Sequence to fold (533 residues):
Amino acid sequence: MVVPELRSWRAAGPRVKRFANAVRPRLTLALGTAKPQVARLVSTVRPLLADLPRPRTPSTLQYTAGAATAGLVLAAGVVTLAGPWDATGQRTAERDRAVALEHAGGADHGTAGAAGEPRPAPSAPPVLTGLGPATGPADTGQAPAKGATPLADVLDPLLASPALGDTHAAVVVDAATGRRLYGTGADKGLTPASTTKLATAVAALNALGPDHRFTTRTAFTAAGGRLVLVGGGDPTLTAHADAGGWASLRTLATRTAAALRQRGVHKATLAYDTSLYTGPALHPIGVNDNLAQVVALTADEGRTDGSASGPVARVADPAKDAARKFAGFLKAAGITTTAPGPAKVTGHPETLATVASPPLSALVERMLTNSDNDIAEALARQTALASGQPASFGGGAKAIAAQLKRLGLPLAGTSFHDGSGLDRTDRLTADLLTAILVKAGTPDHPGLRPLLTGLPIAHFTGTLSARYADGAAGLVHAKTGTLTGVNTLAGTVVDRSGRLLTFAFLASGTKDPMAAQTALDKTATALATCACG
Fold:
């Protein structure tokens, strides 16, 4: 069982005023202490605060801009916001730099460059740099600064809370140097729950590149008038009238209908192809409101209530449901079809129309902010395809581990079985989670930056929107994880001395999920309010 998604950030506007009042005393301290760290923080804190959800109304835009500004002042004191930004809240020049340095194009399943599809923007001169030379697991041990409180004195009592169950692990790392400041059970493999998505994100970004897009297309065979809707594994394909910037099934139907009419075709035999993925579609946890069956063709994640995130009942057959909706859109556009059935494209049929997802960077941000299990499992399969593995749960798990190994990340004590963390047999270490976060900020891997910009912001966005009402609001950016008896938290925080820290806390055997969540939040808050050695 997973704690339901928290979606109260839209109502959080009044908190901004209180939050702004809290900035003033902290700003005075930040201005006096942060100057030595500004040179390295300016390139790190900016992208970390770019993980705001896509604004839909003027009021939301005003709120999110205020939240980012307040958090930035608290984080660095003298760092100012700089653009340009795109509609997803990600820094455009940073994405372009990743493309330029890693040569990761916006390829899709053999149809990149189709007419009407978005193309990657030209590379821009770099305006942001990464953290520094840290490239691997943190060095152990660091002498406290003279007069500073040892970090162990602060964290040990908090981590000893009975609310955190019978087993826990924790690591804190200076993100700029890669030096470990604190560690207990660092290499102990524990159930990670949804913090697994950090590994899935970095693996997908490394395998595919941040500008990769997933394409859904229609293929037509004139002989027999057979039209096939071909799933490309886009987990964000939508059938909603307002696509919100995601690939639209309605748009695909409109383009397909226009292409058929040009050929004088008004009736067709409709089929759908989900052969891109292999193996079982049902997750080992069984039918569950947190995840639809994992198939290469789905619309709106098979949700039955029009929602975009959080647990909800799913349709029994997502591919068939998407094909039925597609048939309805075709009919509205003047094309009559048979009832759709499953089929596999064979030969060399003509591609009539395509729609492509936003770049992978945007999907990663949405996955992390909302803890979206459907996107996570799709990205695991896409990573498998890019790594030469079967596009299945097992193939995805092997591909994730292989990509992490390629990045030089510590895998001792780890075991992957899915991409979402819903599988209780997954094992990750606090050492690996902090190493992933550090790696995502290094200058030699700019394409991994969406992992940081997608982290929920304390008290403002995603799964942290209703947490951290006091103390560390805006300062903690972290991925949450919750299963029955398991509570985890991993992310970044800026401490009182201006250091950017990465941290990972994992607790197993917890009895009260809310008490455990509160204990983890207090521990992260202690990092934000401490100028420890």
